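Lab manual, section 2.4: Encoding a predicted structure.

Procedure: take the sequence of the chain (160 residues), apply the prediction step described in section 2.3, and record the output as structure tokens. A sample record is shown.
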Amino acid sequence: MGVLKAALAKLRGQRVYMDTNTLVYFFDRNPAYFTAVAEIIQACDRGEFFGFTGDAAVCELMVHPYQTRNPAEIARGKAFFARPNFMTVLPHTTAIFDTASQFRATGKSLKLIDALHYATAIGAGCQFFITNDKDFSGIKADVEVINLKTMIEAKAQFGA
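Recorded output:
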């Protein structure tokens, strides 16, 4: 079984948080990551797992379409998140911000936005967190981080 297929099998029936970079790679059709994130997003769309992201991810994703003043891309981004039974967009509450600041205080190289997404995943009871950010070490939580680059490199290394 390939690395990506094994990861998707692991996600089946679980609550999975998608970090901003996962979504940006999909929207931008990033050549290094598009195939993998497209499969992940399609699995979410098929209801194989419960997908989550946060308001901050939507905000970050919409910056480029607004910068370029591209009405088609703006509409595409809004429609993507508005689809029924697809991905739940979570608010970042005061309690989530507090947890994020605690994570930021203990994770020396962890950026606040990354800590915010991770805290939101925990608050939503997610079992997995898909990202391409690196340093979540030192944070004690029951959310497994799936790093896209690591997964793709393993796929290339093992030819799976």
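Check your result against the sample. Helices lie at 3-11, 20-27, 34-45, 55-67, 71-82, 94-106, 112-123, 148-158.
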